[in-house]
Write a structure and sequence with these properties.
Layout lengths: L1 E7 L2 E6 L2 H12 L10 H15 L2 E8 L5 E12 L2 E6 L11 E2 L9 H16 L8 E8 L1 E2 L2 E2 L8 E11 L4 H8 L2 H15 L4 E6 L2 H22 L10 H10 L7 E8 L2 E11 L2 E9 L9 H15 L4 E6 L3 H6 L2 E11 L2 H20 L4 H14 L2
Parallel strand pairs: 5-7, 14-15
Antiparallel strand pairs: 1-2, 2-3, 3-4, 4-5, 4-6, 7-16, 8-9, 10-15, 10-16, 11-12, 12-13, 13-14
Helix pairs in contact: 2-7, 6-7, 10-11
Length: about 400
């Protein structure tokens, strides 16, 4: 359903509550817009079809056009409900490493802080004017500081910095030069020794999986390996969450994402020892999921070897950046030279929302302390945080 909204600061705004009615505009705009790979229509449609729809999530797609009718921005939002409580958030936020608008390339030209804040206030007013789109709070998380070449306009709001960031490697044009700049001579010597041990068990092959049936099998293997890894680390298995398995299978096999999704493996002889799912978008390769087989060969670093092959693939195919996404794991710091800061934004719109926002703000302020607490305390904090989403 589309709700025509009229003019907001010389921008004509429409709000769509069904993805299919926004699909044509969205898919056409994303080809020229500045956005992250997670704002592609097919990615978010897969989330909504497999997860959001069953959770009662309502898309709120805000589309803004200039006076000539040309699309200038899309805000892929949603209202999520639990009982009588609702929050306005990013569509598919839980499965997007970065949540952001899609922006026209000239969106930021001449835009002042008060201009975007005024536009945002007007958009919120239009959403709230629809009685079917009521919500108690605004909860916008994992917003990157930049979207392509532009500063994220949402940083003009009263955002809060996150305690974690995302990490990117600037790749350059030559794999050998890049590799030598990142690995010390001692590390290179140790890794060459490990690769020789791997080769003793069969030919080492970096496999790019392209056939639909092979993609399905490789995704099954990747998910099995990840689940065993979650069990070893005694952390939540995300694939136990309703719809997650179907989501990842859908995006891996969706014809609309054929040029975006990159499934790969590292094989040693007949053994498939490491697997990965990457996303290719403009000048950036993003590593989304990767794992390795916990076998006798694990001591020789199959995951590390596979990562090096993916980095080499990205360089040889002309990507400028390799995105290792959210998290501050040490291995990322070995390869990456860019840290992107992430931000969140909370705002209550009802009395009920104020209580939820107060809890979320308290948790955010306590996070640095919580990370140093014993595991039972951290698990309790995570439980409270999940409840505070509503």
């Amino acid at each position: 359903m589309s709700e025509p909204q009229g003019n907001v600061s010389a921008v004509e705004v429409d709000i769509y509550t069904e993805l299919r009615t926004a699909e044509r505009w969205w898919t056409e705009f994303e080809r020229r817009a500045e956005c992250t790979v997670f704002q592609k229509f097919a990615w978010l449609a897969a989330w909504h079809n497999n997860i959001g729809r069953h959770q009662g999530s309502t898309p709120v797609i805000v589309l803004g056009r200039d006076p000539n009718g040309k699309v200038q921005f899309i805000l892929p939002l949603a209202i999520e409900r639990r009982g009588a409580t609702g929050r306005l958030t990013w569509l598919g936020a839980e499965l997007c490493d970065y949540n952001a608008p899609l922006l026209g390339q000239n969106f930021a030209n001449g835009l002042r802080t008060q201009d975007f804040c005024g536009l945002w206030r007007a958009v919120i007013g239009l959403i709230r004017a629809n009685p079917d789109l009521r919500f108690d709070m605004i909860d916008l998380d994992r917003m990157p500081e930049r979207i392509g070449s532009q500063r994220n306009p949402f940083l003009d709001l009263a955002v809060l910095p996150r305690t974690y960031g995302a990490h990117f490697a600037t790749l350059g044009l030559d794999w050998n030069k890049f590799f030598l700049s990142k690995r010390s001579s001692a590390t290179r010597k140790r890794e060459r020794r490990q690769f020789r041990h791997l080769a003793e068990h069969g030919e080492i092959r970096f496999v790019q999986v392209t056939r639909s049936d092979e993609i399905e099998r490789s995704m099954n293997l990747l998910i099995e390996q990840k689940r065993r890894s979650f069990a070893r680390m005694q952390v939540e298995d995300i694939f136990d969450r309703p719809g997650y398995l179907a989501f990842f299978h859908d995006v891996a096999t969706d014809p609309r994402l054929r040029d975006v999704v990159h499934v790969s493996r590292l094989d040693v002889g007949d053994s498939k020892i490491a697997t990965g799912l990457g996303l290719r978008h403009k000048n950036c390769y993003s590593l989304i999921l990767s794992s390795y087989e916990d076998s006798a060969l694990a001591r020789y670093g199959p995951g590390r070897a596979h990562l090096q092959h993916m980095l080499r693939y990205a360089i040889e195919h002309g990507f400028e950046l390799f995105d290792m996404t959210i998290g501050d794991e040490p291995y990322k710091l070995d390869w990456c030279d860019i840290e992107m800061k992430l931000f969140g934004y909370y705002e209550a719109t009802t009395l009920k929302g104020r209580a939820i926002v107060a809890v979320k703000m308290a948790i955010d302020h306590a996070k640095p302390l919580i990370t140093r607490m014993p595991p039972p305390v951290r698990r309790l904090a995570r439980s409270v945080h999940r409840l505070s989403k509503y």
